[in-house]
Give the backbone structure.
Amino acid sequence: MINLDSVPSENDYLAVGAFFIADIIQFSGLTRADFANVAVRSSIAAYF
């Protein structure tokens, strides 16, 4: 679970990102490399 009372950690972002990205992958032809690229980009975007 994500603790909304604290500053989000990297693991929180990864958990949420993985949840949504898993849905996207089901409906697309993303490769494992694409998944890693999206995960990195969304992690970076979350901090800036």
Notes: Residues 25 and 34 are 10 Å apart (CA to CA). Residues 10-47 form one domain.
